[in-house]
């Protein structure tokens, strides 16, 4: 039985939308309600969500600005639906232009809301399947159908959790991923504070994929935060060195300090102030 959808809801002031969390819970969804924009931005950076619902009347900021902020902070594949009472064409166009995937206006029945959410999820899943068969970072490719990796054309077999972790890192290259967000994505729950499962899985992935600056990819340990995948454009194996800029990605600034135990694996720690 598939896991229920995990929904993030930014609650607003519209009276007819107050019942949405209860409706979603009765329909079998997991719904995390955020009361402020700041809490939402922090929440989506720490946990994985299948969809984001945003009320159009917010107490602290414009809903359009929230959508733009989320789009800057997260990858484009997080489905966003705006819920509002203003059914004007101008409001619809403004929401879609800001990055929303759908706009549901006015009081709607539970069936309509759930049907629109299901349709949005199907569309997002289909887009990922069509566009995301290959995830690329430096000289690496991840095949999401066969769930294997390649390095310079050489096929590398991964365990299910190794592949899930690699896909999460590769599709968020240059971004700091919090430990809690990684744990939720891989294990679907937070690990005990003293657990070494995440560190062990990260170490195995580095060894399996042979991640290193020489191969164009390294993992940065961000103290007290999590991990970040870095792409080295100056590596001799980087696609741009071989005349293939289509596979190249932007390289974030690297910070100082090599971890002695992981120096051979290209792991680079940075301080909190560098985040």
TrEMBL record:
UniProt keyword Zinc, yes or no: no
Domain of life: Bacteria
Annotated region described as Disordered, given as residue ranges: 232-251
OmpR/PhoB-type domain boundaries: 131-231
NADP listed as a keyword: no
Family annotation (InterPro entries): CheY-like_superfamily (IPR011006), OmpR/PhoB-type_DNA-bd (IPR001867), Sig_transdc_resp-reg_C-effctor (IPR016032), Sig_transdc_resp-reg_receiver (IPR001789), WalR-like (IPR039420), WH-like_DNA-bd_sf (IPR036388)
Matching PROSITE patterns: OMPR_PHOB, RESPONSE_REGULATORY
Chain ranges of the Response regulatory domain: 6-121
DNA-binding region extent: 131-231
GO biological process, one term: regulation of DNA-templated transcription
MF (Gene Ontology): phosphorelay response regulator activity; transcription cis-regulatory region binding
GO cellular component: cytosol; protein-DNA complex
Keywords: DNA-binding, Phosphoprotein, Transcription, Transcription regulation, Two-component regulatory system
Name of the protein this chain belongs to: Response regulator receiver:Transcriptional regulatory protein, C-terminal
């Amino acid at each position: 039985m598939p896991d229920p959808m995990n929904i993030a809801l930014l609650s607003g002031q519209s009276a007819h939308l107050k019942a949405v969390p209860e409706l979603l819970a009765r329909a079998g969804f997991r719904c995390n309600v955020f009361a402020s924009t700041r809490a939402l931005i922090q929440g989506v950076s720490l946990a994985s969500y299948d969809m984001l619902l945003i009320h159009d009347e917010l107490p602290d900021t414009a809903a359009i600005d929230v959508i733009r902020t989320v789009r800057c902070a997260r990858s484009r594949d997080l489905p966003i639906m705006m819920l509002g009472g203003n059914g004007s064409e101008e409001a619809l166009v403004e929401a879609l232009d800001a990055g929303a995937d759908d706009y549901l206006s006015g009081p709607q029945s539970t069936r309509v809301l759930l049907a629109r959410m299901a349709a949005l999820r199907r569309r997002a899943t289909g887009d990922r399947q069509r566009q995301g068969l290959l995830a690329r970072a430096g000289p690496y490719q991840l095949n999401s159908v066969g769930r294997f990796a390649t390095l310079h054309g050489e096929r590398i077999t991964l365990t299910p959790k190794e592949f899930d972790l690699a896909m999460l890192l590769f599709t968020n290259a240059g971004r700091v991923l919090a430990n809690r967000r990684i744990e939720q994505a891989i294990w679907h729950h937070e690990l005990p504070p003293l657990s070494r499962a995440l560190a062990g899985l990260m170490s195995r992935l580095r060894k399996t994929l042979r991640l290193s600056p020489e191969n164009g990819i390294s993992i940065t340990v961000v103290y007290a935060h999590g991990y970040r995948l870095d792409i080295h454009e100056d590596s001799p194996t980087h696609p741009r060195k071989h005349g293939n800029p289509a596979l190249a990605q932007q390289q974030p600034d690297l910070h100082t300090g090599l971890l002695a135990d992981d120096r051979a694996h290209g792991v680079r720690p940075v301080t909190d102030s560098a985040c």
